[in-house]
Design goal:
Elements: E1 13-15, E2 21-23, E3 26-27, H1 29-40, H2 51-70, E4 75-76, H3 78-123, H4 126-131, H5 136-139, H6 144-154, H7 162-177, E5 182-194, E6 197-207, E7 218-228, E8 235-243, H8 246-253, E9 271-272
Parallel strand pairs: 3-4
Antiparallel strand pairs: 1-2, 5-6, 6-7, 7-8, 8-9
Helix pairs in contact: 1-2, 1-3, 2-3
């Protein structure tokens, strides 16, 4: 009997050294794909947006293993398929744990800064609030008065200072409207990570006796922060603040986002989170 030369390689028996016959089994392609994507799932440790790599690795592994079990005499590759799935799951769990831990750390940092900054908002003059808009290194070499004077001198048009100064003036006007106005830190409203920066918003209550200009006994104040490790030590920048009116407060209470003011080109404040503002 003449053997058909067109028979597939996978069905052709081969003789082993001890004389026994063994069939050649091809590696299921999806098993290799699962292993490759499982290895690349390590990118999830950098950013969880790489999670589709994990999905591809798991899906490829599942299909590969089913096919191998269906055709055990023709296909092999369960080991790389299982390794790929294990790597993908492991990297995803590790990345999730890192992100949860980092979220808690950033929230604690923002809360510590917000607690100390309440006293600055309530007691310090306008010049000091503007001084907080300087980077930490610049604050060490200038006083609040010098910072305000330099800002005014460097502005080509005083109108350009209004987006930054007017919210501060509005807050100070409310605090000066009647005695016994109090600024109370309520907590961190939102915190998230964008690229290498941590963005947070802090919620304060400004309460006190009413007046003709301020008939409401309480107004809410939002302070927007940005933090990073650019200098080797984590530092916050107070990008802007907004004293909310009644409609904005109701929107905030219903969990609708209140967008921050349009940022200006001027430098924003900075403060180390490990220490309360002085």
């Amino acid at each position: 009997m003449v053997e058909d030369s067109k028979s597939p390689a996978i069905a052709t028996p081969e003789t082993s050294i001890d004389g026994e016959y063994t069939a050649y089994r091809a590696i299921q392609p999806l098993a290799s794909i699962s292993l490759v994507f499982g290895i690349f799932s390590i990118l999830c440790l950098l950013d969880l947006s790489f999670w589709p790599l994990v999905v591809i690795a798991l899906a490829s592994s599942g299909v590969a293993i089913r096919q191998i079990r269906k055709y055990p005499d023709l296909l092999t590759g369960q080991t790389p398929a299982k390794i790929g799935a294990s790597l993908a799951i492991g990297f995803l769990l590790a990345a999730s744990s890192i992100n949860v831990t980092q979220y808690m750390i950033n929230r604690t940092r923002a809360s510590q800064f917000g607690t100390g900054f309440a006293k600055v908002l309530a007691d310090e003059p306008l010049e000091t609030l503007i001084w907080w808009e300087l980077p930490a290194q610049a604050r060490r070499s200038s006083t609040p008065e010098e910072a305000y004077e330099n800002m005014v001198k460097q502005a080509p048009n005083p109108e350009l200072l209004r987006p930054k100064v007017d919210p501060l003036k509005s807050l100070k006007a409310r605090l000066a409207s009647t005695p016994n106005q109090v600024v109370t830190f309520q907590g961190v409203k939102e915190i998230r990570v964008e690229e290498l920066n941590v963005l947070a918003s802090l919620l304060y209550d400004v309460t006190g006796p009413t007046s003709e200009a301020y008939p409401e006994p309480k107004q809410e104040l939002l302070v927007f922060l940005k933090g990073n490790n650019a200098s080797g030590t984590f530092e916050w920048s107070v990008e802007s603040l907004r004293l909310l009116d009644g409609n904005e407060s109701r929107a905030l209470a219903s969990s609708q986002p209140v967008p921050p003011p349009v940022p200006t080109k001027s430098k924003m404040p900075s403060a180390k989170s490990e220490a309360n503002p002085e």
